[in-house]
Amino acid sequence: MSSENDEPQLELPVALPGRQFSPLVPAMLLLALIGGGVFAAADSDSKAIDKIPSRPEDLSANVVTLVSPEDRAAVASAVAALRVAPAQRAEIAQAVAERRQQLGWIVFTDSMDPDGDTVAVEASGLTQQIVLTKSWTPVAVTLADSGPIGVTALRDGQGGGITVAFATSSGTVPMRIMRPGERIEVVP
Question: Count of domains in the chain?
Answer without folding.
Answer: 1
